[in-house]
Design a protein that fits this description.
single chain, alpha/beta, OB fold (Dihydrolipoamide Acetyltransferase, E2P), Rossmann fold, 3 domains, 6-stranded mixed β-sheet, 5-stranded mixed beta barrel, 30% helix, binds guanosine-5'-triphosphate, binds magnesium ion, binds zinc ion
């Protein structure tokens, strides 16, 4: 096994040596559609399926092969299709909480270097949702990049106002504003992408994720779809898919998300809300919940207009969600249920 594939490195190589049988090869999952995968090796892309033995030993659906995974495969007859025998450990990942009350995760993609968190300047823009995506990236050890699309539909002042809103919420992540129509900002995106790195695009339907990938590859390979008058997309992309750029970077397209469910531990949450974390030592009580306590420095900052109210409310909302999730986790564990 040589280091020929973009994205492969010594970390994966070492795991592959330990996990793959001598007769097996390494490949990367490029698409998943109802249990059926596509994998790419040095010579091309072939359909693949996990073996019965692999599926039988699964602990959770989260461990099933997903886009971006490196897998050990063999080719039973010629090279037309592959058996997946093992999934290499994931260096990083993007996953979300499944819709509804359940505490299940759904994998979005694995082994991602940078998440492009895509929002449109036009209709879709929402700082609280951005914060959720940032938590999702942080939890999976993925670097975030904010991409604001459709700058051609707003004027310069409106764009600056949106950026100020993001900064006002204490978000310091890099922002690239682009237009797939005029080409503005596409150069900046290309510049920051490098050989062998994997970039996953996430965001609501209709914000222009697939269009952006088509612009970057220079081919109209991915299907794109018009949005309704309210700017809502029509869920054109239906499966996660990995594409390669000629210069050796890797892009993953995903279907637009309706809900961004995140499951984070309370400490992880505080790390992400740096401004609130910095204020809390000044609260009178060390275990201050920043909701009603006297002498709360966070509440004081909100009242003084130094902390955006929306940002603060989103923090409390996420905190409550994560606390109740933690509670249901331990309740389930007590009942001996698997989650
Ligand atoms: N004006 C304008 N329209 C854009 C831009 N980028 C994409 N669009 C249009 O927005 C619509 C939706 O684009 P898609 O690329 O299909 O959006 P998506 O994010 O992939 O949506 P899903 O696949 O449903 O998640 C299409 O009609 C695009 O032509 C842009 O920068 N400016
Ligand atoms: Mg799409
Ligand atoms: Zn407080």
């Amino acid at each position: 096994m040589k280091l020929i594939e973009p994205g492969m490195d010594h970390w994966f190589q070492d795991h592959a040596t330990a996990l793959c049988e001598p007769a097996q090869h390494l490949a990367r999952v490029t698409a998943v559609d109802r249990g059926q995968c596509l994998v790419r090796n040095a010579s091309g892309e072939v359909p693949a399926k996990a073996t019965g033995k692999f599926m039988g030993a699964l602990q959770s659906t989260i461990d099933m092969p997903c886009v971006g995974d490196w897998v050990c495969v063999d080719y039973p007859d010629s090279e037309n299709w592959a058996n997946i025998h093992a999934v290499l450990p994931r260096k990083s990942f993007l996953r979300r909480k499944s819709a509804g009350k359940s505490l299940k995760f759904q994998m979005i993609a694995a082994n991602i270097d940078v998440a492009f968190i895509v929002q449109s300047c036009h209709h879709d823009f929402n700082v609280s949702r951005l914060e959720r995506y940032l938590l999702m990236a942080n939890e999976g050890r993925v670097d975030p990049l904010l991409v604001l699309t459709k700058t051609d539909l707003v004027d310069k002042d409106a764009l600056e106002h949106l950026i100020a809103k993001i900064r006002g919420a204490g978000i310091h992540t890099r922002i690239i504003a682009i237009s797939n129509v005029t080409g503005e900002g596409l150069g900046q995106i290309k510049e920051m992408m490098s050989f062998g790195k994997s970039y996953c695009l996430v965001g609501s339907s209709g914000v222009g994720k697939s269009t952006l990938i088509n612009k970057l590859t220079g081919h109209a390979t991915l299907k794109t779809g018009a949005v309704s008058n309210s700017g809502e997309g029509r869920h054109t992309t239906v499966r996660r898919q990995l594409v390669f750029l000629e210069q050796g970077s890797i892009l993953i397209d995903t279907p637009g998300m309706r809900e961004v469910g995140v499951l984070v531990a309370s400490e992880g949450l505080d790390e992400n809300f740096e401004d609130i974390q910095q204020l809390s030592p000044a609260c009178r009580f060390t275990n201050c919940s920043h909701t009603q306590e006297p002498g709360c420095a966070v509440l004081k900052a909100v009242q003084a207009g130094k902390l955006a109210r929306e940002h603060y409310h989103n923090y409390i909302k996420l905190k409550t969600e994560s606390a109740s999730n933690e509670m249901s986790y331990s309740a389930k564990r007590k009942k001996g249920q698997r989650i």
